[in-house]
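Hi,

Apologies if this is the wrong queue. I'm a grad student, and the batch job for histone acetyltransferase from Macrostomum lignano produced an output file that my downstream script rejects. I'm not sure whether the problem is my script or the file. Here is the sequence I used:
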Amino acid sequence: TQQHQQPAQQPHLPTSVSTPSLGGSDSLLLLSEGFVAPVRLKNGGEYRLAEILSRREIPVSPSSGGGNADSSLVMYYVHFEDFNKRLDEWVSADRIDFTGIQPPRVRPPGSGGSVSGGGGIAGGNGMANPVPGERRSVLGAAETGVGAASTAASSVVGVADSVSNSRAGTPDSTASGGPHHHHNHHQHPLLNKKRPYSAICLADSGVDQSEDEASAASSAAVVGTASANGGPPLPPPRQTGSMAHNHDDNKVMRMKNIEWIELGRYRIKPWYFSPYPVELTKVACVYLCEFCLKYLKSVTCLRRHLTKCQLRHPPGNEIYRRQNLSFFEIDGRKNKAYSQHLCLLAKLFLDHKTLYYDTDPFLFYVLCETDSVGCHIVGYFSKEKESAEDFNVACILVLPPFQRKGYGKLLIEFSYELSKLEGKTGSPEKPLSDLGLISYRAYWSQTLIDALLEIKRSAPNENDPPSVTINDLSERTAIKREDVISTLQHLNLVHYYKGVYVIVLTKEALDAHSRTQGKRRIRIDPKCLQWQGKDWSKRGRW
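Support response: The file is valid. Your script probably expects a header line. Output copied below for reference.
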């Protein structure tokens, strides 16, 4: 489509038009896209500033008490500022305070689409900045509870490596992912799930709190995509590596397009946009086969499909089984249909991702609960076959019905067990989302304290603290060196004492660690893992 350049002009309020009467008024302002207005929250009478993303009119029949035959009900799709996009919804005009309307805000070049969280609001009606509401964790339980270290030390472990000036290497200390190597040997974009190239500002609130507090942490703010009007052109999306552009300027991708999905016994309300076929966006519920993840538009189609579907577990190799839990390894090249269906499903619950057609460079590890009927998907993580940055996770997700059951940490633990068998240290793709940072930091905290306690117990002399280097901790846990340093600094366990850096395990940190360890009911048993790494640099293995 051609873009027509128009002279710059001051934004103006829309004119009044006749709409169905609400609250005794015969005229209401029809807001255009981009305007900001206070909107009443669904649960409670509090108003929060929200951006108008779209508007639609629903015809009202006279029999329903809507007035004359040509009347209509105006609905607005709104995004609450400083709230996660999963809370976006359609609202009626009676929930909008038309006295506090603000014109569209002029975005600086390169600022990209709408802000999905983060900073405060300029201007307004003197309203307080919104506080994120209750949120469900994408990665399941995130109970860390390990607070900052106090001055009283219960044990001291000497550290040989200097950890000064390492803050810049932490996963949450920089706004962007930094420079990257481009590998453009894959040509067709839609289904390789990638983290956007745009910077992610990670909120500090709640990341080191308990599970309930962590679920109410502030949302991440996404900035940095090029302006559609004045900014520099976006480079082509990366086909491999850690980043890819997420085009938030596209209004369609900013709005949820699927109302409900039904997966097995569960009916789930999606959180975000996913590029399912357009015809599925017009149905009340999309039905998914829980074994092959094929999408269908009606119960009748699903029943017909189930009579022909031969799968009772994900395609690929079962590489782990313990009790009723199994992991399946799926090659994105050998099982393209399943991999693409899995990516479409995951995009409904992952915001900072862009999909591409080619799934060949990825492996998918699907966690299932097994019963007499078959293997039912719980969650998954994906990883690149070849990662120049040694990433052991590209995307990770626990489906909402199975969250807060410890499956998130189980997936993270499994990814590091694979890294141990490969003889490598691993790390998730950066930058992490807010919920991803919560879960990973909780896992890193528990694993590193476990390793330090084991080192202390193995010391020949209890009165002489053992020496340990950052590299020792990294090799023992398979956690990358930068993540080890950032976690120790976050827990405030590193101190400078008599010219050397030492790790101080306080009584408070140990007590918090004991409480969180008691909550982890399921763990990975390495003896049940039957897997051998491959050298994917040899193209014959693809």
